[in-house]
Amino acid sequence: MTTVTLESLQPELQTQIMRHLKSGQTLYSLLRASPRFYQVFLTRKEFLLAELARKQFGATFRDAWDAVKVSQFPRPISTETADDFVGGFIHDDSHQQPIFPLSTSIALCNLGATVRWFVDDFWADCLDNIKRLGRLAGLRQVPAVLDSPLSAIEIGRIQRALCRFATLADLLKALDKLSCWRLGQNFLTSFNVDEVEEIGCIRDYLMRRLWRVFETIEDDAMQSDESSPLWRMARAVPGCWFSASLKRSHPIHMDRMTNLGLPFLREVFESRGLKRADLFMANSNSRARGITTILPSSNPGYARDADPFDEGVFVGRADFAGDSLDDFSSGWLYANRGKKAVQDNRESRKGFRDWAYVMLDRDRLAATGVLEKESDASS
Fold this sequence. Notes:
globular
């Protein structure tokens, strides 16, 4: 009897095996281990990479497509190009084509790897804040639920927010202040209000991470001699990066740094020592336009077909908060209970964004203890 191995399968079957792989690293490992699979891959690489890109993003593939599309615009992006994109991207169905240019598929796969890293890092940061909130507020939390793997819906919300943040940041880089505000508002009004809050959660998370990077660099500097390379870097920034006067402008610099791209930010977060300090301080005077002024300070009336506030109370009904990316976020409904969609929410927004409330499904939201605390307070 002839032994059947992966190497001896027909090319059509080998293609189907590669088609169902879910990560670029798995595909890369297979191609390195099997010359036969590598040869088959070369004849079908456009199709296989397009399939891989779709699998990495699932229901949020459209948002990844938009991010890559904008990243491939000629630089600098003109106001006309940005306006044309924002005016038509929501109706563009070019992401549905079966095969993409190889450069687009590769960019999508690279974005997929970057987004996966940020999903894990984002959730680790927010989970730490959730547990800190529980300790400070005396919440009865459910660790088994909080520590469980993210659901597909939660991952989808974080993925699409990261992709939309990347798209918006890329569009704003080369535009003047007035054009940025107008284009940013047009872009955001394409989404529902809870989806805009998702982008706000990503922005706040990146700012928290950059602040921690700065604090680490500052601690290293305080423990080193003032003739060290770290201090020479700090003094190269006009006014010295660690001076009290310059610290007041740090939020502006860090906001601009968030627009330098997710790959750059990942490099900053993963690097250590002088390399991290060099990456951080060398880019502290970036002229990239930050998105803080673009994000609304109140809940604008980005309309859905149905208004969850018809009864004026938070009810968490299944027809508004369910198991689909198209459903209202349970966390957003909780945070805005008793309010109309156009009511200002600036006092509560910062605290809620710290623990990614708008990303959580109903079970994890309940496990934070905030719903039980609210029930106790009202009884």
